[in-house]
Amino acid sequence: MEVVPAAVKKAYLSRKFKRRNRSILGDFTLTFFLGLFGLFSVWPLIFIINNAFKPLNEIFIFPPKLFVQNPTLTNFQDLLIIIGNSWIPMSRYLFNTVFLTAVGTAGTVIIGSMAAFPLAKYVFPGSKTMSKLIVYSLMFNGTVTALPNYVIMSKLHMIDSYWAVILPSIGSTLGLFLMLNFMVQVPDALIEAAKIDGASEFTIFWRVMMPLSKAAWITLIILSFQNFWGTTGGGFIFSEKLKPISYALMQIVNAGVARTGVASAVTLIMLVVPVAVFIFSQSNVLQTMATTGIKE
Protein backbone atom coordinates (compact mmCIF):
# COMPACT_ATOMS: atom_id res chain seq x y z
CA MET A 1 0.00 0.00 0.00
CA GLU A 2 1.43 3.34 -1.09
CA VAL A 3 1.86 5.86 1.69
CA VAL A 4 1.25 9.51 0.86
CA PRO A 5 3.86 11.82 2.48
CA ALA A 6 2.40 14.05 5.19
CA ALA A 7 3.74 17.23 3.56
CA VAL A 8 2.11 16.39 0.22
CA LYS A 9 -1.16 15.49 1.93
CA LYS A 10 -1.12 18.74 3.92
CA ALA A 11 -0.40 20.82 0.82
CA TYR A 12 -3.18 19.06 -1.09
CA LEU A 13 -5.73 19.61 1.67
CA SER A 14 -4.68 23.24 2.05
CA ARG A 15 -5.03 23.81 -1.69
CA LYS A 16 -8.37 22.06 -1.76
CA PHE A 17 -9.62 24.11 1.19
CA LYS A 18 -8.57 27.37 -0.47
CA ARG A 19 -10.24 26.40 -3.72
CA ARG A 20 -13.41 25.57 -1.84
CA ASN A 21 -13.37 28.97 -0.10
CA ARG A 22 -12.83 30.79 -3.37
CA SER A 23 -15.57 28.74 -4.99
CA ILE A 24 -18.08 29.57 -2.27
CA LEU A 25 -17.22 33.26 -2.44
CA GLY A 26 -17.41 33.23 -6.23
CA ASP A 27 -20.74 31.41 -6.19
CA PHE A 28 -22.15 33.86 -3.67
CA THR A 29 -20.99 36.87 -5.70
CA LEU A 30 -22.35 35.40 -8.92
CA THR A 31 -25.68 34.53 -7.29
CA PHE A 32 -25.95 38.01 -5.81
CA PHE A 33 -25.41 39.78 -9.13
CA LEU A 34 -27.67 37.37 -11.00
CA GLY A 35 -30.39 37.95 -8.41
CA LEU A 36 -29.91 41.71 -8.69
CA PHE A 37 -30.19 41.71 -12.47
CA GLY A 38 -33.10 39.26 -12.25
CA LEU A 39 -34.90 41.71 -9.97
CA PHE A 40 -34.48 44.48 -12.52
CA SER A 41 -35.73 42.13 -15.25
CA VAL A 42 -38.86 41.06 -13.38
CA TRP A 43 -39.72 44.62 -12.27
CA PRO A 44 -41.63 45.54 -15.50
CA LEU A 45 -43.55 42.26 -15.31
CA ILE A 46 -44.66 42.97 -11.75
CA PHE A 47 -45.67 46.50 -12.78
CA ILE A 48 -47.77 45.22 -15.72
CA ILE A 49 -49.57 42.66 -13.54
CA ASN A 50 -50.40 45.23 -10.87
CA ASN A 51 -51.46 47.87 -13.40
CA ALA A 52 -54.07 45.54 -14.85
CA PHE A 53 -55.88 45.48 -11.49
CA LYS A 54 -55.55 49.18 -10.65
CA PRO A 55 -58.50 51.61 -10.85
CA LEU A 56 -57.96 54.69 -13.01
CA ASN A 57 -57.14 56.96 -10.08
CA GLU A 58 -54.19 54.69 -9.15
CA ILE A 59 -52.98 54.35 -12.74
CA PHE A 60 -52.64 58.12 -13.15
CA ILE A 61 -51.13 58.77 -9.73
CA PHE A 62 -47.70 60.42 -9.72
CA PRO A 63 -45.18 59.18 -8.82
CA PRO A 64 -46.55 55.78 -9.89
CA LYS A 65 -46.72 53.01 -7.31
CA LEU A 66 -45.56 49.51 -8.09
CA PHE A 67 -48.20 47.56 -6.17
CA VAL A 68 -51.95 48.04 -6.42
CA GLN A 69 -53.65 49.50 -3.34
CA ASN A 70 -57.32 48.80 -4.19
CA PRO A 71 -57.43 45.86 -6.63
CA THR A 72 -60.38 45.74 -9.02
CA LEU A 73 -61.59 43.73 -12.02
CA THR A 74 -63.18 46.77 -13.67
CA ASN A 75 -60.56 46.90 -16.42
CA PHE A 76 -61.33 43.33 -17.49
CA GLN A 77 -65.07 43.90 -17.25
CA ASP A 78 -64.82 46.97 -19.48
CA LEU A 79 -62.73 44.96 -21.93
CA LEU A 80 -65.44 42.27 -22.13
CA ILE A 81 -68.10 44.94 -22.78
CA ILE A 82 -66.05 46.48 -25.60
CA ILE A 83 -65.36 43.07 -27.13
CA GLY A 84 -69.07 42.20 -26.97
CA ASN A 85 -69.96 45.34 -28.96
CA SER A 86 -67.44 44.61 -31.74
CA TRP A 87 -68.99 44.05 -35.19
CA ILE A 88 -66.45 41.30 -35.85
CA PRO A 89 -66.77 38.49 -33.26
CA MET A 90 -63.73 38.15 -31.02
CA SER A 91 -63.76 34.42 -31.75
CA ARG A 92 -62.91 35.28 -35.37
CA TYR A 93 -59.91 37.33 -34.31
CA LEU A 94 -58.82 34.51 -32.02
CA PHE A 95 -59.15 31.93 -34.81
CA ASN A 96 -57.00 34.07 -37.10
CA THR A 97 -54.28 34.29 -34.45
CA VAL A 98 -54.38 30.56 -33.69
CA PHE A 99 -54.22 29.70 -37.41
CA LEU A 100 -51.34 32.08 -38.10
CA THR A 101 -49.43 30.88 -35.03
CA ALA A 102 -49.94 27.15 -35.62
CA VAL A 103 -49.26 27.07 -39.35
CA GLY A 104 -46.49 29.66 -39.23
CA THR A 105 -44.67 28.00 -36.33
CA ALA A 106 -44.92 24.52 -37.85
CA GLY A 107 -43.72 25.79 -41.22
CA THR A 108 -40.81 27.69 -39.70
CA VAL A 109 -39.58 24.64 -37.76
CA ILE A 110 -40.00 22.16 -40.62
CA ILE A 111 -38.48 24.32 -43.37
CA GLY A 112 -35.67 25.58 -41.14
CA SER A 113 -34.76 22.06 -40.01
CA MET A 114 -34.87 20.52 -43.47
CA ALA A 115 -32.71 23.30 -44.90
CA ALA A 116 -30.22 23.11 -42.01
CA PHE A 117 -29.66 19.35 -42.24
CA PRO A 118 -27.75 19.22 -45.57
CA LEU A 119 -25.81 22.39 -44.75
CA ALA A 120 -24.72 20.96 -41.41
CA LYS A 121 -23.79 17.42 -42.45
CA TYR A 122 -22.93 17.47 -46.15
CA VAL A 123 -20.35 19.30 -48.24
CA PHE A 124 -21.47 20.40 -51.71
CA PRO A 125 -20.55 23.23 -54.08
CA GLY A 126 -21.57 26.54 -52.52
CA SER A 127 -22.35 25.15 -49.05
CA LYS A 128 -19.82 27.38 -47.29
CA THR A 129 -21.02 30.43 -49.22
CA MET A 130 -24.61 29.66 -48.24
CA SER A 131 -23.64 29.37 -44.59
CA LYS A 132 -21.96 32.78 -44.71
CA LEU A 133 -24.95 34.35 -46.46
CA ILE A 134 -27.22 33.01 -43.71
CA VAL A 135 -25.12 34.78 -41.09
CA TYR A 136 -25.02 38.01 -43.12
CA SER A 137 -28.80 37.97 -43.57
CA LEU A 138 -29.28 38.16 -39.80
CA MET A 139 -28.06 41.77 -39.94
CA PHE A 140 -31.22 42.88 -41.75
CA ASN A 141 -34.23 43.47 -39.49
CA GLY A 142 -37.89 43.36 -40.42
CA THR A 143 -38.02 47.04 -41.36
CA VAL A 144 -35.44 46.56 -44.09
CA THR A 145 -37.09 43.46 -45.56
CA ALA A 146 -40.70 44.72 -45.29
CA LEU A 147 -40.75 46.35 -48.73
CA PRO A 148 -39.16 43.41 -50.63
CA ASN A 149 -41.54 41.03 -48.86
CA TYR A 150 -44.50 43.17 -49.85
CA VAL A 151 -43.40 43.27 -53.48
CA ILE A 152 -42.93 39.49 -53.58
CA MET A 153 -46.29 38.79 -51.94
CA SER A 154 -47.95 41.25 -54.32
CA LYS A 155 -46.45 39.48 -57.33
CA LEU A 156 -47.75 36.18 -55.94
CA HIS A 157 -51.23 37.74 -55.41
CA MET A 158 -51.15 36.86 -51.72
CA ILE A 159 -51.70 40.31 -50.22
CA ASP A 160 -54.64 40.40 -47.79
CA SER A 161 -54.33 36.69 -46.96
CA TYR A 162 -52.86 34.59 -44.19
CA TRP A 163 -49.95 33.54 -46.39
CA ALA A 164 -48.72 37.13 -46.75
CA VAL A 165 -47.77 36.94 -43.05
CA ILE A 166 -46.81 33.26 -42.86
CA LEU A 167 -44.50 32.85 -45.87
CA PRO A 168 -42.07 35.73 -45.13
CA SER A 169 -41.66 34.46 -41.57
CA ILE A 170 -41.07 30.90 -42.75
CA GLY A 171 -38.41 32.23 -45.12
CA SER A 172 -36.58 33.98 -42.28
CA THR A 173 -33.02 32.72 -41.76
CA LEU A 174 -33.09 32.93 -37.96
CA GLY A 175 -34.60 29.46 -37.61
CA LEU A 176 -32.19 28.08 -40.18
CA PHE A 177 -29.27 29.60 -38.29
CA LEU A 178 -30.34 28.09 -34.96
CA MET A 179 -30.91 24.62 -36.39
CA LEU A 180 -27.72 24.71 -38.45
CA ASN A 181 -25.46 25.57 -35.52
CA PHE A 182 -27.09 22.92 -33.34
CA MET A 183 -27.04 20.13 -35.94
CA VAL A 184 -23.33 20.70 -36.54
CA GLN A 185 -22.72 19.40 -33.00
CA VAL A 186 -24.33 16.01 -33.76
CA PRO A 187 -21.56 13.40 -34.29
CA ASP A 188 -21.16 12.22 -37.87
CA ALA A 189 -20.70 8.67 -36.57
CA LEU A 190 -24.42 8.51 -35.78
CA ILE A 191 -25.31 9.33 -39.38
CA GLU A 192 -22.82 6.78 -40.70
CA ALA A 193 -24.23 4.11 -38.38
CA ALA A 194 -27.75 4.89 -39.58
CA LYS A 195 -26.64 4.58 -43.22
CA ILE A 196 -25.03 1.20 -42.48
CA ASP A 197 -28.37 0.07 -41.03
CA GLY A 198 -30.02 1.05 -44.32
CA ALA A 199 -31.74 4.24 -43.21
CA SER A 200 -32.78 6.69 -45.90
CA GLU A 201 -31.90 10.39 -45.82
CA PHE A 202 -35.35 11.31 -44.59
CA THR A 203 -35.20 8.62 -41.89
CA ILE A 204 -31.83 9.96 -40.72
CA PHE A 205 -33.27 13.46 -40.61
CA TRP A 206 -36.48 12.53 -38.82
CA ARG A 207 -35.32 9.70 -36.54
CA VAL A 208 -31.77 10.81 -35.73
CA MET A 209 -31.24 14.55 -36.27
CA MET A 210 -34.57 15.88 -35.05
CA PRO A 211 -34.62 14.02 -31.69
CA LEU A 212 -31.01 15.05 -31.01
CA SER A 213 -31.86 18.66 -31.93
CA LYS A 214 -34.89 18.83 -29.65
CA ALA A 215 -33.60 21.80 -27.65
CA ALA A 216 -33.01 23.80 -30.86
CA TRP A 217 -36.41 23.28 -32.43
CA ILE A 218 -38.22 23.87 -29.16
CA THR A 219 -36.38 27.19 -28.93
CA LEU A 220 -37.40 27.92 -32.51
CA ILE A 221 -41.01 27.09 -31.67
CA ILE A 222 -40.94 29.58 -28.80
CA LEU A 223 -39.41 32.37 -30.91
CA SER A 224 -41.79 31.74 -33.80
CA PHE A 225 -44.77 31.50 -31.46
CA GLN A 226 -43.97 34.88 -29.92
CA ASN A 227 -43.57 36.40 -33.38
CA PHE A 228 -46.92 35.19 -34.70
CA TRP A 229 -48.81 35.67 -31.44
CA GLY A 230 -47.99 39.38 -31.37
CA THR A 231 -48.36 40.13 -35.08
CA THR A 232 -51.01 42.63 -36.17
CA GLY A 233 -50.94 41.77 -39.85
CA GLY A 234 -48.91 44.88 -40.66
CA GLY A 235 -49.30 46.11 -44.22
CA PHE A 236 -50.12 42.65 -45.55
CA ILE A 237 -53.64 42.05 -44.19
CA PHE A 238 -56.32 44.72 -44.71
CA SER A 239 -59.55 42.73 -44.41
CA GLU A 240 -61.04 43.08 -40.94
CA LYS A 241 -62.18 39.46 -40.84
CA LEU A 242 -58.60 38.26 -41.37
CA LYS A 243 -57.00 40.43 -38.69
CA PRO A 244 -55.47 38.68 -35.63
CA ILE A 245 -56.56 39.31 -32.07
CA SER A 246 -53.55 41.52 -31.32
CA TYR A 247 -54.82 44.01 -33.92
CA ALA A 248 -58.28 44.10 -32.34
CA LEU A 249 -56.82 44.64 -28.88
CA MET A 250 -54.49 47.37 -30.15
CA GLN A 251 -57.48 49.18 -31.62
CA ILE A 252 -59.05 49.13 -28.16
CA VAL A 253 -55.88 50.45 -26.58
CA ASN A 254 -55.59 53.33 -29.08
CA ALA A 255 -59.12 54.57 -28.41
CA GLY A 256 -58.00 57.23 -25.91
CA VAL A 257 -56.94 58.04 -22.37
CA ALA A 258 -60.26 56.85 -20.96
CA ARG A 259 -59.31 53.30 -21.85
CA THR A 260 -55.97 53.32 -20.10
CA GLY A 261 -57.22 50.75 -17.60
CA VAL A 262 -58.48 48.54 -20.41
CA ALA A 263 -55.10 48.95 -22.13
CA SER A 264 -53.40 47.62 -18.98
CA ALA A 265 -55.66 44.57 -19.02
CA VAL A 266 -54.93 44.01 -22.70
CA THR A 267 -51.18 44.23 -22.08
CA LEU A 268 -51.41 41.55 -19.39
CA ILE A 269 -53.52 39.25 -21.57
CA MET A 270 -51.12 39.51 -24.51
CA LEU A 271 -48.19 38.86 -22.19
CA VAL A 272 -49.47 35.83 -20.31
CA VAL A 273 -49.34 33.24 -23.11
CA PRO A 274 -45.79 33.93 -24.42
CA VAL A 275 -44.39 34.13 -20.89
CA ALA A 276 -46.07 30.85 -19.91
CA VAL A 277 -44.69 29.11 -23.00
CA PHE A 278 -41.21 30.42 -22.27
CA ILE A 279 -41.29 29.39 -18.60
CA PHE A 280 -42.19 25.79 -19.43
CA SER A 281 -39.45 25.57 -22.09
CA GLN A 282 -36.67 27.74 -20.68
CA SER A 283 -34.24 24.85 -20.10
CA ASN A 284 -34.23 24.02 -23.81
CA VAL A 285 -33.77 27.69 -24.70
CA LEU A 286 -30.73 28.00 -22.43
CA GLN A 287 -29.22 24.80 -23.82
CA THR A 288 -29.64 26.04 -27.39
CA MET A 289 -28.16 29.46 -26.68
CA ALA A 290 -25.20 27.81 -24.95
CA THR A 291 -24.36 25.61 -27.93
CA THR A 292 -25.29 27.90 -30.82
CA GLY A 293 -22.19 29.24 -32.50
CA ILE A 294 -19.83 26.60 -31.06
CA LYS A 295 -17.89 24.83 -33.76
CA GLU A 296 -16.01 21.58 -33.70
Automatic annotation (TrEMBL):
CDD domains: TM_PBP2. One of its GO terms (biological process) is transmembrane transport. Keywords: Cell membrane, Membrane, Transmembrane, Transmembrane helix, Transport. It comes from the Bacteria. One of its GO terms (cellular component) is plasma membrane. The chain crosses the membrane at residues 24-49, 93-121, 133-151, 163-184, 215-238, 258-280. Residues 94-281 form the ABC transmembrane type-1 domain. It is found in: Cell membrane. It is a multi-pass membrane protein. The keyword Cell membrane applies. It holds the Pfam family BPD_transp_1. Belongs to the binding-protein-dependent transport system permease family. This is Carbohydrate ABC transporter permease.
